[in-house]
Amino acid sequence: MAFTTMLALVFSCIVMEGFFSGTEIALISLNRHRLAHRVESGNIAAILLERQFRFPANLYATTSIGTNVSVVTGTAVMTAYLSELKFRDADFLAVLAISPLTLLFGEIFPKAFFQKWAEKASYAAIYPLIAAQKIFAPVRIVSAGIARLIMSAFGIDASHDPRSITHEEIKSIFAAERKDMDLHPEEQKIINRIFGLKHITVEQCMVPLIHLTALEKKEPMSAVRAKLEESKFSRLPVFSERIFNIVGVINAFDVLRYGDTAKTAADLARPAFYVYKKKKVDDLMQEMQRAGVQMAVVVNEYSDAIGITSMEDLMEEIFGEIQDEYDKEQEQPQAREIGQGRWLADGAVEVDFLNEKYGLGLPNGDYETLAGYVLTLLDRIPRKGEAVTHGDFKFVVRDATERGIKSLEMTKIIREKKEVG
């Protein structure tokens, strides 16, 4: 073997080792939030990376195999070359010669470089990494099978991650250590809300259809831009013919980027991400993170859309109301006392809020808002000016549309006590 041939082969092996070891540290250091944003914007490399992260064991097995194959191959080439030159202890000399090179140029320098430029390196490396994954697939599958057999022989569950910890274990640790944690009351609330996520369904934190700003798929781009500007939202649901049939979601960034070439909302609508109304919030958060989506369409058992929820809505179940630059502009449901025993309230005001603030004692049921309570009493959408009396209150509809109640006036009925005797 010629010296230049040996040198070229060893150099190639060190470069390969540097690629695999550096890529591994880049993937570990990659900002997942930026990755999710790039996935949403349609970046191909980001989409491929996100898919690979769904199976991290396969991903890191590939980088590990690539690193080891490179080191072993480089050492074998140097050993063969030294053996041809009749060196005694050629294998020892080969290890002695190649170890500093692999340590510096195959491990330390590449890892430092890839960690500093983790984002660019990861997006550039994903294509050769996928190719290597296919090449090393037989080795990886056989190695994984042998590892499982050995672990099974020792009674170890190969599917169990020893680093994992259950929800109940975390909760018990927190309960035991709470006194020593010196947590702010608000921090305790956040932690308690996290523990409570598994009991909250999507239906409880969704935005119902009646409160949605949505686009019909045939609407022209001029109407799309107008509704985005008026609503101040970055995403709007797109429906076909009727609001219960939501077929996609339109993103303001897509309108800015491709709006000049599109004719209708359907041209830019991305496929909708559907979720059943009874799904638990903690499960949905994980699914949306894996899918790289920010908005989900909530459906009932008949596959009709009943509302939408966003990642912000889900996060608010943990942190409370999250204010953005437009929240101050959006009016919140109001209620005020306009006289002795008389109140004027928006239909969207929650019954619990009214009971807590004014001590009204309105009953709870399969509704959350005052409008929902009155609709339950009437079993239909009332007209403006229509009145209904129930229990200790009289309700008069002050404003309504064909879709629901916008505001009501409540009057507490004073009942005269009858004298006995």
Q: Could you name the key traits of this structure?
A:
421 residues, alpha+beta, CBS-domain, 4 domains, 5-stranded antiparallel sheet, 4-stranded mixed sheet, 17 helices, 54% helix, 16% strand
Could you characterize the architecture of this molecule?
The protein has helices at residues 3-29, 32-40, 44-53, 56-84, 90-116, 118-135, 137-153, 167-181, 185-196, 202-205, 221-231, 252-258, 265-268, 281-291, 311-319, 351-358, 370-378; strands at 207-208, 215-216, 235-240, 242-251, 270-271, 274-276, 295-299, 305-310, 335-339, 342-346, 387-390, 393-401, 404-412. α1 (3-29) packs parallel to α5, α1 crosses α6 and α3 (44-53) crosses α6. Helices cover 54% and strands 16% of the residues. It is elongated and about 115 Å long. With 421 residues, the protein is of the alpha+beta class. The chain has a 5-stranded antiparallel β-sheet with strand order 9-10-13-12-11, with helices on one face. The model has no long low-confidence stretch (mean pLDDT 83). The protein has 4 domains: 3-153, no CATH class; 167-199; 202-319, CBS-domain, CATH 3.10.580; 335-412, Uridine Diphospho-n-acetylenolpyruvylglucosamine Reductase, domain 3, CATH 3.30.465.10.
